[in-house]
What does this fold into?
Amino acid sequence: APDIRAPAVGRRMTSEVQALEMEAARSLDAAGNALESSGVGAPLQGAATRMSTGYGRRLKRCNAVTRVVIFGCLGMALFGYDTGVVSGAMVLVRTDITMDTDQAEHVVSITMLFAAIATVFGIPANSLLGRKPVIMFSAVLYIAGSVAVAAASSVVELLVGRAVLGVAIGFASGTVPMYSAELSPPDLRGMIVTLNDLNIVVGQLFAAMVNVIFRHYAGGWRWSMGFAALPATVLFVGVCFLPESPRWLAMKGRRADAEAVLRLLYDREDVSGPLEDILTAISLEGEEKDSKRGFGGLMKRGFGKLGSIWGVKEIRRAAVLGIGLMAMNQFSGINTVMYYSTTILVQAGFSQDASIWLAAMCCAAQLVGVCVSVASMDTAGRRSTALRSSFGVVLTLSLLAVSFMYKDDPLWDNVKVVALMLYLVAFGSGLSGVPWVINAEIYPLKLRSAAVGQATVSSWLFNYLVGRYFLTICALAGTSGAFMVFAGCSVVGGIWMYFMLPETMGLDLEEIDAQFKDPYPNLGAQAGNKNKQQREDANGAESASSDENSTSAQDLSESD
It folds into this structure.
């Protein structure tokens, strides 16, 4: 089997391999016919045909899905790398390039500002050009931005390079998850989308480890910043060999091409069902006319959808919830820790070397939290996961605020590190992922893409504000005061979520829409839990009725 399979993976089988398979097929058929005459071999009938016609297709499907997973994860890991590498690198950058606190904040935050801008233009670009070209363009920008930052000799050059990286991140973050979801077969879609989210944190962890490796080299930060050009090149080349999204192909009227991609993904010839689902969704979202629109028309249509979102009371409530969750996600202080963790630890009295190592451990702690979130999201529910995470974030931020009141105290230095790790676990276990999951669930299909895009842009803008002013807050109120501000924001956000966040786990679209109708709010989980309990009660009553009927029939039979 290895001799036959290995040459066949990822390409058309050669005539020699086909000859070997046909010979094996004839042997299997002969054995099957012999066994069938004795009543034992019926299951083997036609085994050769199934092998020769289905085996190569399964290999091709496996190869295609594997490539989607690999390069989708690589795209999101690059996103995580470029947002995470700045933490350890900035401490080293300031030893080579002189900059004040305000300039350092600009260098860190300008990436998020340009990511927000790129997200706005990335939405129509995806519709006009396709998913593949946008991802490839973002890879080129990753390469250009990484090289520009690595070669920078002044603050202005750093700002230009970081701005280019921001555009790359904005395009990639809005395109890669959508592309992966559209190319994923239903039985693998949840796993692939979850891997995309998880690999953002993996990218941040890898960036921290690269900072550790290059910390002792002269100009080591240049290697850390420039390293992203290597995986970006791999991403560019790899995407060239991936198919275009079947949804985009169908939207452009290229039905035959869409069917070819779907056959590869679904491993069957008849893909009329999945194709019809795609065409129906395109019709509901009004995308069938997008192929006739130019860039300006697509932008106008997008802003028209935003007007529809804010013009309908129920959808407006959902939009406020979605943007509010993004604010909660950022104003709990997560990205100040990710961007400035090394700086914070240096201010706490740790050496540069120890701070870079501890920053890497911080990324690992958040990864642990994200794994907890993935495990609990569909079991404990979105609401419970978010509230539990919020409670942990408030406690750990308060502990951080208290610990930073004490300097040059070995005991409290240890408390700072432990509290920082626990904070990242607490945040990753809920507030990291719940806002994105909720935003993907609460909007009507026709307006979902515009509403999620709006929430994504708001997240980047909140991210920019936090990154832009964190060091200023530390200068005015101290690091302890900054963490106290974030703890206060988390308290307010936690209370707001308790009263405004419904439970959406297990609810269909109609039930989720009902959460935002009058009376509103429904005190969070009560409406969702009530619907869920009603379904469970109905199922239980049906089961009890069935058991009762069965018992009655049995009694009647015994009586007869």
About this structure: DSSP finds 22 helices and no strands in the chain. The two ends are 61 Å apart (CA to CA).
